[in-house]
């Protein structure tokens, strides 16, 4: 028998017909040709099938399926079902599309995520954070759990220096009343802070009442300084703004840097600013409305994070892991001399610039803030003494922030710190002589907790 006759063999035998409970069950069996003819016919069909286009193949299969009985449909369905699911989520990260995988998974609930075999995508990304933030916004119970506790629950509360489990589950949700504080300055009457929401806020230091909100920047306010006349702010929008400290109005806008302004300092008619673009700018300040660019200092190979100066030196610290010293009068670059420096390598170093003199915060202490949220007070005299044991260097460790410490200032009586956890803390500074205490744990102290 020829293969064509095999294909056209329509012999159907009806068998095994049974009727029970008002239903009928019919099993249809086609007569199968001899083994040799069957194999030849099958091979010929497959040969023709492989030569067709995909659309022709689909049309042919549809035609075949339409001629089959229900039993055959069920058998084919059982065969196809394991082939249809595709674990495309695990293949997306291999193509550099982790963000798409995370976005898709964000529509699942926590139970589904725990049950799925998607460990790498879930653990390495921000999926859990996005899920929790969505729950906080939509579920009243979650929202209540995320609200911050008042400052009175923190007052006089001792905190260990070790990391607590709370830091692992504290919800860092963003809301209208919770914005990151990037910088601040204060005096006896007020606190002025720069925020992630592009605004500058002025607070009454005693009552903690918000007095003014200054708006005008189109990026986060990363640095600021003020005196009795003006506030100067630097922003991620690459501009500097000069504000009337009393009226809160913009007096001047300085456009020079091409990227975010990270730090600034002004004094006695001179202002120095530094930027993400690796440069330092010197400005002459005749008045709030008359500020002109004097010189641009170039030498760092990475982001310039901090700059400061006095009547003799300009000191800058950069992400290139160098600290450079420049002449204030001539803008000449000096070699290695003295600087007090802090670094992301978890160390504070003292550098000898000239004649052993130290550029320091005061004559007794150095105060530093770190990415782990801790604030440390160091004994400057012990640090200058090469014979002093390491255990005498750190006087105090203040533990309360749960995010990076971004800015801090201190005087004889208080330390004010701001953090990425959206808080400002004002600490009562224990005026303990360096020789009287070597504790590295937080002592009994009071502080005021601000969250706005």
Automatic annotation (TrEMBL):
Q: What is the lineage of its organism?
A: Eukaryota, Metazoa, Chordata, Craniata, Vertebrata
Which Pfam families does the protein's record reference? Beta-TrCP_D (PF12125), WD40 (PF00400)
Q: Which InterPro entries match?
A: Beta-TrCP_D, F-box-like_dom_sf, WD-F-box_domain-protein, WD40/YVTN_repeat-like_dom_sf, WD40_PAC1, WD40_repeat_CS, WD40_repeat_dom_sf, WD40_rpt
Q: Which UniProt keywords apply?
A: Repeat, Ubl conjugation pathway, WD repeat
- Does this UniProt record's set of keywords contain Repeat? yes
User: Keyword tRNA-binding: yes or no?
Assistant: no
Q: Which SUPFAM superfamilies match?
A: F-box domain, WD40 repeat-like
Highest taxon, organism lineage: Eukaryota
What GO annotations for molecular function exist for this entry? protein dimerization activity
All residue ranges annotated as the D domain in the record: 46-85
What's the protein here called? D domain-containing protein
PROSITE patterns, A to Z: WD_REPEATS_1 (PS00678), WD_REPEATS_2 (PS50082), WD_REPEATS_REGION (PS50294)
Q: Repeat WD: residue ranges?
A: 187-213, 214-253, 254-293, 297-330, 337-354, 362-381, 398-428
């Amino acid at each position: 028998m020829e293969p064509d006759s095999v294909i056209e063999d329509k012999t159907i035998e009806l068998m095994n017909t049974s009727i029970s409970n008002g239903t009928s069950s019919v099993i249809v069996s086609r007569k199968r040709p001899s083994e040799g003819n069957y194999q030849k016919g099958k091979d010929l069909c497959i040969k023709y099938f492989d030569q067709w286009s995909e659309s022709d193949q689909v049309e042919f299969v549809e035609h075949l399926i339409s001629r089959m009985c229900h039993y055959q449909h069920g058998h084919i369905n059982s065969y196809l079902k394991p082939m249809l699911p595709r674990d495309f989520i695990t293949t997306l990260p291999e193509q550099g599309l982790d963000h798409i995988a995370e976005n898709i998974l964000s529509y699942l609930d926590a139970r589904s995520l725990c049950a799925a075999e998607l460990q790498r995508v879930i653990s390495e990304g921000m999926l859990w954070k996005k899920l929790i933030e969505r729950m906080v916004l939509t579920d009243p119970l979650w929202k209540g759990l995320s609200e911050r506790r008042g400052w009175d629950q923190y007052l006089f509360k001792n905190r260990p220096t070790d990391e607590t489990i709370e830091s692992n589950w504290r919800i860092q949700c963003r809301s209208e009343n919770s914005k990151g504080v990037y910088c601040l300055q204060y005096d006896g009457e007020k606190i002025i802070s720069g925020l992630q929401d592009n605004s500058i806020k002025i607070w009454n230091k005693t009552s903690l009442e918000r007095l003014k909100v200054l708006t005008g920047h189109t990026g986060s306010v990363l640095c600021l300084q003020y005196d009795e006349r003006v506030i100067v702010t630097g922003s991620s929008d690459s501009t500097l703004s000069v504000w009337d400290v009393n009226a809160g109005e913009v007096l001047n806008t300085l456009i020079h840097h091409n990227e975010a302004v990270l730090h600034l300092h002004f004094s006695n008619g001179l202002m120095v600013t530094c930027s993400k673009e690796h440069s330092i700018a010197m400005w002459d300040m005749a008045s709030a409305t008359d500020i002109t660019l004097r010189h641009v200092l170039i030498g760092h190979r990475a982001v310039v994070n901090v700059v400061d100066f006095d009547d003799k030196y300009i000191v800058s610290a950069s992400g290139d892991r160098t600290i450079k010293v420049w002449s204030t009068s001539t803008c000449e670059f000096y070699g290695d001399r003295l600087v007090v420096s802090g670094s992301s390598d978890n160390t504070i170093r003292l550098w000898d610039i000239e004649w052993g003199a130290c550029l320091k915060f005061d004559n007794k202490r150095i105060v530093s803030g770190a990415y782990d949220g801790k604030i440390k007070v160091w004994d400057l005299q012990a640090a200058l003494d090469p014979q002093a044991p390491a255990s005498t260097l750190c006087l105090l460790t203040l533990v309360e922030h749960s995010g990076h410490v971004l800015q801090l200032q201190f005087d004889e009586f208080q330390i004010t710190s701001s953090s990425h956890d959206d808080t400002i803390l004002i600490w009562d500074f224990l005026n303990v002589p360096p020789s009287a205490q070597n504790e590295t744990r937080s002592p009994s102290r009071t502080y005021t907790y601000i969250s706005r």
